[in-house]
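To whoever is on call:

I kicked off a structure prediction for a single chain this morning and the downstream step that reads the tokens threw a length-mismatch warning. I double-checked the sequence; it's 182 residues and nothing unusual in it as far as I can see. Pasting both halves so you can look.
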Amino acid sequence: MDINIFLEKLKKHWIENEIPNISIVNARFIRDLIKIQGTKNMLEIWTANWFSAINFALELKEIWWKLTTIEFSKLSHDQALENFELAWVSKIINAINWNALDVIPKLDEKYDFVFIDWMKRRTHDFLELVWDKVLPSGIIIIDDVIKFREKMVWFWEYLEENNIKYNTIPIDIDDGIIMIIK
């Protein structure tokens, strides 16, 4: 199977069904970061139809490292497992179906890359929960920080109160990400 055709089909599906997902531009940018950083163990918090997870796993697969991804929806989780098999990345993905706020405290691993893209009003909670699980010099990416800024008031306050340095990068035409290097 041609992975690019498969990713195009996933993209078409999420556009037709109005499923929120990262853009192709964001996916390419993050894949480049994974490559440049030499990411070995990545955590993703929410991924809709798993377009992002497959993109990230394609980079991690090159060096046989690992992605843990958390999805709340049982339907999305089950579709993801099928998509992982079709994309030949299932062996490097640990897919967890549950509420990330409950799962993250139970994770015993350390991560060198974290991608957060779920419940914008709870972004500060996710960041707080993963902070001690991120290795020094690890990268944390938070998606949709421009478009949904008003939903993330507590997040911006959390960054300021904790003196967390970050860069806002306007990657998409209408949105961008925050990158934090721990």
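Update from on-call: the warning came from a stale cache, not from the record. Cleared it. Sanity check on the structure: The first strand starts at residue 41 and ends at 45.
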